[in-house]
Every structure is written in structure tokens, then in C-alpha cells.
Write a structure and sequence with these properties.
single chain, about 80 residues, mainly alpha, flat
Amino acid sequence: MLRFAVPAGVIAGSAAFTTYLLARSDHATAQVADTSATTLTLFLVALWALAIIARPYTWWRVLLVLAMGAASPWS
């Protein structure tokens, strides 16, 4: 599980940085929209990482991933 932490962290950081740069390149959006897009990206990458780590799936692990998805601020 620890050997997954560094690659997942690099992917999360790269995705967040890229999302923020792409959002900032559009000058029509406010900074609040830029940070919201970045936050959403980090949430989705974290949910993806949890889904990978939760394998092999059992009922309670699926419930954990679904609960994390339902607990998002955008639900």
C-alpha cells in the first residue's frame, strides 16, 4: 500500500496543478471557480485512489467507496 502512495501523490499533484493552470488560462472565470475546479479534481483522484486500494472488493469496501463519493461537498 505504501508503494502506491508516491505515484498516487504525484498523479494527484500533477492533476491539480494542471487543472488550476487550465482554469487560470481562461480569464473569464473568477478565482473561486479556479479553486473549485482544482478541489473537484483532487477529490476525484482521491476517490480513484481509494477505489484502487479497496481491492479486492467486498461489500463493506464497496460501501466505503460509495460513502466517500456520497460525502463529497457537491452531493
